[in-house]
Structure formats: structure tokens, C-alpha cells
Amino acid sequence: MKNLFFLFLAVAFLCSANSFSQVRRQSESTTFMLRGEVIDGETNMPIPKVNVEILGGQYTTTNLSGRFAITAQMGDELVIKSDDFVTVYYTVLKTDFVTVRVEKAPGQTAVPLSKNAQKSEPNNFKTYLDSAKFFLKKDAQKSIEFVTRALEPGHNKNISKSENSLAFETLGDINLFWNQPDLAIDNYKRSLQNASNPNISIKLAKAFAQNKSYQESIAAYLNLLQGRLSPYQKVAVYEGLGDTYKAIGDGVKSVYNYQKGLDVAKENKITPKITNLNSKIGEAYAQSGALVEAEVYFDNSLKLAKKENKKRAVSEKNKVADFYNQNREYEKEIKLREETLKELNAMGKVVTVEDEALTSQRQNYKIANAFVAQEKYKQAIPYLEKSIAEANKAEDLVVKKDAVRKLSEIYRDIGEFDKATESYQRYVEVVDELYVKKEQEISQAARFSKEITQKQNRIVSLENDRKLNESRYKLAFENQELIERNSQIQKGVIISLGVIVLLLIFAAYSQYKSVKQQKFANNVLALKSLRSQMNPHFIFNALNSVNSFIAVNDERAANKYLTDFSLLMRSVLENSEEDFIPLEKEIELLELYTNLEHFRFKDKFDYTISVDENINLNNFVIPPMLLQPYVENAVWHGLRYKKEKGLLEINFEKIDSKTIKISIIDNGIGREKSKQFKTENQKKQKSKGMGNTQRRIGILNAMYNDKITVTVKDVFENNEGTKVELILKRD
């Protein structure tokens, strides 16, 4: 009766503990939409395009008004960061609107560092790559940073294809070690594009398997077997095939490939691989249920491992002990684990085996499990207590959780309910502690993954820049060849005039074809030339605006203008190589530019930008910065000279499914009066921005069959106001 009473109390306590834990976690996990804004601490101006994220959770950016909305929970850590200011960490403690003030960053970036390094050491690729390999298993970010420095362009620094291949191979090794197989696959592919190497192909196949792309892994390994491989490479390929087939549960093919690899390893006396493959064949047989065959190979691997080194021997004993556990040969398992414990204590350090740390606390726990499986509870208790004590020292919450729970279950089964209750209470505490730790680890892992991806993108950008420079050189070289070929054809035509009419006709045809190619190439070059002229023209006008702020000692306005101007310039330069960009991007650029002009002439005009909601912006493309010169003319030559405050309207209207109309309307002084305000020098010079825009439209229409039409007219009968209409057709 007394025992039943204690049992009832224990069950009631456990139920209440579980209920309390669940309620607490549910209350903590309630999510809500957190809204806020990011503003400059000095000017109180909103800051657009700021990175806002919840550690291990959601990500967003601020809009043009500096505002953001993100899903959050109480206690989450909000991170607000940008290259332009010091990163801010904010703990969410309420659901109210959040205002985050930021301070300007001191201005240190990775680029000046690399430039300084280039001045002192123009070409230190090997040094950087060796440093990357040194930190590969210690600090992933530092390792990737060294690869980045190795690939950065510099004076007198040319990176060969073989060096490029080595750099991306190292990146793949970093990704694979830190369990980022998707990134590893991309990097190994880039490495192979620069230099073919069986070792890299083997790593690629392994990355496919780790990414669970098993069929791609098998295809890559089989393709390697068709080529020439060294004995060690053959063993690695057969072993990789065996691993992949084992992962998909095909035991027959797994054993077959392991055995092929073992034959090659024995023939060439590759001792470490002989041990590994005996062990893996044993695992494959055990997985398939062929326990007798598995035991034969495990015995072989145990004997071979003893001849190698203590670490390898301990690792193999742990693996064979797991096999004995699976086969319910608990006495053999306990004996091996006791030996493992002695050797671990003698070595005095943790031996890492794949995903599991081979520690004394884990071995003690497994020995206790073996005793429990035989219902020898009294013998299991001392090992569990040792496991708990050693897990405490090593701060191993996972093993501690398992051991405390198992101890509670044993006390319950042998009728010691007080101890069972006490142990289960300790178990609940450890679970809560482990839950918090796991949440922190997940958060750190998410942040780590994001930072690694950002560094990876930086390296890809460097590679793309290098390829772009090569393409430009190639284009110039091909153009020169085209000109020389044209000259040769012309000479050939002159000589052939006196030979035969048939040769003359052939030469004329060749000339026609060459001129057509030249015309197309000239159009492409003309477009690039006009785009390159637009950027300096735009930059010059913008710097004049900054100069005017400085002239009136408005340093804060100049700083604000420069900040917004740099954001606009970054977007302009990103699109500078494109003939067309999505209409959505052009509208975004136009909003940024118009906002800058309004910032300078805010007493002169107001503006509106309206976009027909029926327009699918993703369906239309437009040359980059095509609309900016028209807006610039409206502000500088129409609204700036107006005595009262003017109005600038920019409208995007849908005509039909393939056509939209863009209107830029101002109620300024008009084109005729604007001419009167021009200086003599301005009258002699044509507007470079408008002229370049008209030439761009002409060339693009010739190449793409009348894609854009432009009309300019007055708005009012007194010749005041100007209206520019552009008709844009969908390709």
C-alpha cells in the first residue's frame, strides 16, 4: 500500500512538471508582428535598405521611409546592421513600435585592408591559401577570409586557372567540413571548370552524397571509374560508392563496392584503407541482417586497428561494441567498452568518431544500457552515476539528460520512488537547460550560415569581376580582328576586279556580311559608350548639388545627400552593363533620384509618382536610367525657375497587355522661357543627358524593332509646363 502511495505521488509530480514546462514554452513561443523604424542618430532622417533580422529567424530590410515589419517573439534578439553604421543589437521586450537610432561606422572595410596588403605583397596567393587551410577546421570565417584575399585582384597579380581551381577547392573543403554540402558542390564545380582533377571530382561526389543527392553522387563516382585513377583514388571511389549505396539501403551493392575497394587496397598495401573497409563491410552486413558475416569482418578490423594507433583502435572498439549491442551480445559489448574506457583514460583526451564524441561519459552510459537490457539494474546504477558525474565535468548536457532519465526509470522499476522522483526532477531541469542551449546553438548556426554565405558571395563576385575583365579584353581583341579582316576583304575586292566576275560577286557578298556584323558590333559598342557617358554626367550634376550644400555650410544636409546619393550610385553601377532592366528597378532608381532633387529644391516643387496597379512590373523591361534625364530637365529647366511652388507628376499607365505609357509632367516655366535663362555657353552646348538618351533610344529601336517612342509637348496654351510621354512595348 505504501509503495502504491509513493507511485501515485511520483506520477502526479511528473505530470505537473511536464504541464508547467509545456505551458511555459507555449507562452514563450507566441509570435507577433514587430514594427519599427531605423533613423540616423544625428539627423533623425530615416535610413532605407538596412538589414534587419531576428537571430536564427526572420530577415527583412527597411523601406524608403526607413520602416520595417518582422515576425518576432518576446526575448528575441533583433540585429540592425549596415556597412554605413555600427551594428545595433536590440532585445524584444514589448510589442510597441520600435525606434532604433544608429551611429556612423568608423569606416573600416575589407577592401582597404586588401589594398594595403597588395602594396606590401603584390602576389601572396600561396601564403593566403596555406593560412586558409590552417584555419579550415578551427575558424571557418577566418579561413574563407584568407581565400578571399588570395583571389582579390591587385597590381602585378595574375591568378592562373590552376590557382583559381585550388582556391575554390579549398572553399569546398571548408564548406564540406562545416556541413554546408550545397555550397561545397558549387565550389567544387567551379574548381573543376578551371582544372580537371580526379581528387576534386571525388570530393564533389562525396558532397553530393552528403547533400542527399545520391543519384548524382553515384553517377559522379561511376564516371570517375571510366578514367585513369591511381590505386588510392580507385579505393576512394569504391569506398564512396559503398557509402552512397549504404545510405540508400542497398546492402548488396554497398558490400560489392567495399569489397572491390578492399581488393585494390590489399593489392597495393594501403593499410589504413584495409582497416576502414573491413569495418565498413561489417557495418553493411550488419545493416542487411547478415550478422555472422558482419562479425567476421569486425574481428578483422579490430585486429588491424590495434596495429595502427591507439586512437584508431579505440574508434573501432566503439563501433564493434555497437554491433554487439545490436546483436544483443551484451557481455561482449560490456567487455569491449570496459577496455575502451581504460584506453580513453590512458589517452586523456576526447577521440572524435564521425558525428559522435567517444567520451568516457558516453561509454559509461552505454555500459549501463547493456546491463539494463539484461535487467541487471543494480550493476547499471554505478555506471549511470559515473556517466552523470563525468557529463557534469564536460558540460555534456545530452549525455547527462539520457543518463539521468535512465537512472530515474531504473529507480522506478526497482520500486525506489523517492529516488525516481528526485532523478526525474533533475531530468526536467536538464531538459530545460538543454532546450535553451539548443535554441542558442540553432541561432548561432543560422547566423554562422548567413555570414559564410555572405563571404561566399564576395568570392563569387571577385570571380565574376575577373571574368568580366577577360570578356572586355576579348571583345576589344575581336573588334580589332574584325576591323583588320574588313580591310583585308576590301583589298581582296580591289585585286579581284580584274580577275573574274564570279570572284567579284563572291567578294561583294563577303563585304556585305562583314559590314552587317560590323554594324551590329558598332551598335553594341555605341550603347556601352553612351552608358559610360551617362554615369559621369549624372555624377557631375550630383556633385554640383553636394557642392551647393557645402557652399552654404550645410554639412549635415551634404552628408545626408551623399548617403542617399551613394545608395543611388550603387544601384546605377550595378545596372550599368545591362541594355534593359526590369521596370520595377527603374521605378525604384527614379524614386531615389527624384527624392534627391526634391531634397535640394524642396521649396521649389512637390512630386508624385503613381503606378497603375494593373501593370505587372515583372513583364516589362526598360533601359537603365532612361527616365532620369527627363526628370532632371523638368526640375532644372522648368520647376527651378518657377516663382511659386511647382508640381512634378510621374505616371505609369497601362494601355494594353503589351504597352504602357509613362508620363513626366511639370507645371514649370516651359521650354521657351527656359531658353532665356541659359547662358551663352549653355546655348552653344546641347544637353548631353538628353542627347545621349535620344541616341540610346534610336540605337535600341533599330536593334529591337521600335520598342520605345518619345514625344515632348507643352502642357498649357501659354507655352508653360512640359509633358514627356514615353510609350514602352513589351518584348
Supply the key terms:
single chain, 731 residues, alpha+beta, Immunoglobulin-like, Serine Threonine Protein Phosphatase 5, Tetratricopeptide repeat, Heat Shock Protein 90, five-stranded mixed sheet
Terminal CA distance reads: 87 Å
Q: Rg to the nearest angstrom? A: 36 Å
Overall mean pLDDT score?
A: 77
**CATH architectural group of the domain at 518-729:** 2-Layer Sandwich
Helix content: 55-70%
Biggest sheet, spatial arrangement of strands = 11-13-14-16-15
* Fraction in beta strands: 5-15%
The first-level CATH class of the domain at 518-729 is given as Alpha Beta
Q: Supply the number of helical segments.
A: 25
Principal-axis shape equals flat
| Beta strand count | 16
Domain Signal transduction histidine kinase internal region: 527-605
GO cellular component, one term: membrane
Pfam family, one: TPR_16
Signal peptide: 1-21
Q: Would you spell out the secondary-structure blueprint of this structure?
A:
Blueprint: H1 2-28, E1 31-40, E2 51-54, E3 59-61, E4 67-73, E5 77-82, E6 85-91, E7 98-102, H2 110-120, H3 125-134, H4 140-151, H5 161-177, H6 181-194, H7 198-210, H8 214-225, H9 231-247, H10 251-267, H11 271-288, H12 291-308, H13 310-326, H14 330-347, E8 351-353, E9 356-358, H15 360-373, H16 377-394, H17 397-413, H18 417-496, H19 501-551, H20 555-574, E10 581-582, H21 583-600, E11 605-611, E12 621-622, H22 628-639, E13 646-656, E14 659-666, H23 670-676, H24 680-684, H25 688-704, E15 708-714, E16 722-729
Parallel strand pairs: 1-7, 11-13
Antiparallel strand pairs: 1-4, 2-3, 2-5, 5-6, 8-9, 10-12, 13-14, 14-16, 15-16
